[in-house]
Amino acid sequence: FLLNNSTMGKTQEEQVIDRTKLFPWHAKSYEECFAELGISPEAVRTGLSSAEAESRLAKFGPNKLTEKEKTTLLQRIWDQVANVLVGILVVVAVVAAIKAATADNSEDMVTNLIEVGLIVFV
């Protein structure tokens, strides 16, 4: 393969990994895939030799998917409420609660507490 600016300064292993990411595996025959991987078609029946498997393990690392970062309950709650509209609703609920606390008659207080309840429910 050709060296170009995207491969300059990379190790041979990084270049191989980059090349395998760009190889159109789905559009090639299995012989072409074997050639790209550097194994013989006999490997389908016999598998890799122990030495070859060890060298590939040392070169590429274990064949393991990366684990997704786990999110805590607080992070999930924050992701749900961290937006402008929720902030506006919280401000309106606080204003309605203050109005309810400072209301002169019980009718205004009940009305404002119902407003707070509805806002918090939403």
Fold and architecture overview:
The protein is an all-alpha fold and 122 residues long. It is built from seven helices and no strands. Helix 6 packs antiparallel against helix 7 (106-121). The longest helix has 18 residues, at 84-101. The protein is rod-shaped. The chain starts with 11 loop residues before the first helix and ends with a helix. The relative contact order is 0.05. The model is unreliable at 1-5 (pLDDT under 50).
Distance between the termini: 60 Å
Q: Low-confidence spans: pLDDT under 50, at least 5 residues? A: 1-5
Q: Strand pairing plus helix content: what structural class?
A: mainly alpha
By oligomeric state, this entry counts as single chain
Secondary structure: number of strands: 0
Rounded mean pLDDT is: 80
Largest sheet: none
Q: What is the tally of helical segments?
A: 7
Write the layout of secondary structure elements.
Elements: H1 12-22, H2 30-37, H3 43-46, H4 50-60, H5 73-81, H6 84-101, H7 106-121
In a nutshell, what does this entry contain?
With 122 residues, the chain is mainly alpha-helical.
